[in-house]
Amino acid sequence: MPKYLRALLLTVTLGLFGCASVPLGSVVPLLRLDLATTRIEALRVAVRLPEAVRPRPGGVVLDVVLNRQGLPELKQAYLLVETEGAADLAGLVGQQRPGFRLTAYRLGAEDLERFRAVQVALAEARASGKSGGLGFGIATREFCRTGEAAPGRIPASTYLMTAESNGWLTVSEDFDLMGEPKVAAELANLAAC
Questions:
Q1: Which residues contact 92 (CB under 8 A, 6 or more apart)?
Q2: Predicted local distance difference test score (pLDDT) of residue 25
Q3: Which residues contact 72 (CB under 8 A, 6 or more apart)?
Q4: What pLDDT is recorded for position 181?
Q5: How far apart are CA 98 and CA 107, in angstroms?
Q6: What is the pLDDT of residue 44?
Q7: For the residues of the chain, what is the DSSP string, one character each?
Q8: Res 104 pLDDT > 50
Q9: pLDDT in the model for residue 17
Q10: pLDDT confidence of 135, banded at 50, 70, 90?
Q11: How far apart are CA 96 and CA 86, in angstroms?
Q12: In Å, what is the CA distance from 139 to each residue of 10, 68, 91, 134, 189?
């Protein structure tokens, strides 16, 4: 896999694999991120949603695809857990909006070790002369509603921060989850939180 594709352009999956586009200003910084070498404990993800809907606990994951020359593709999902640290949201103050909730996430302790094992596997493949890379996406797969009904439009925004990113990167901005038919069907029948 060519080095410049190691991030696979970060196709962001929201809801039940609905796709959102990456803002142009974030494309180059996202392509420069290398999950193979990043300090994964510093990785943070943030999601901004209208107050009427909320991700369920355990519903936000980091999907990772490991490609190594001559070996089968390995796909894994890593649970993102909500973080209460004020420092985790500090760089997103300008992204707060009335009527919206901004929540930050990090990898759970068990998934940190699983992810480090993937980093080691890729490093070993590269050390033996094989090409390889990691692709990733942020997925929110389970929602609940906090109001009477899900709103007609659900603009979602996602953000990513790593030790190397020099702050938060916007991954998707105001992507309407109701614009994706599969996601909209699920969101129309949300249970209360």
A1: 46, 102, 104, 159, 168
A2: 74
A3: none
A4: 83
A5: 28
A6: 92
A7: --GGGTTGGG-EEETTTEEEPPPHHHHHHHHH--TTTS-GGG-EEEEEEETTEEEPTT-EEEEEEEEETTS--EEEEEEEEE---HHHHGGGGGG--TTEEEEEEEE-HHHHHHHHHHHHHHHHHHHTT--EEEEEEEEE--EEESSSS--S--EEEEEEE-TTSSS-EEEEEEEEGGGSHHHHHHHTTPPB-
A8: yes
A9: 30
A10: confident
A11: 14
A12: 11, 23, 21, 16, 19
For 115, residues 6+ apart whose C-beta sits below 8 A from its C-beta are 40, 64, 78, 107
Q: Are the C-beta atoms of residues 53 and 146 closer than 8 Å to each other?
A: yes
Given pLDDT bands bounded at 50, 70 and 90, which one contains residue 105?
very high
Asked whether 136 and 64 are in contact (CB, 8 A), the reply is yes
What is the rounded CA–CA span in Å between residue 119 and residue 117? 5
CA dihedral 192, 108, 127, 64 (to 10 degrees): 0
Q: Which pTM value belongs to this model?
A: 0.78
Enter the tokens of residue 157.
Answer: 């925004």
Residue type, 152: G
Place of tokens 């193979």: 36
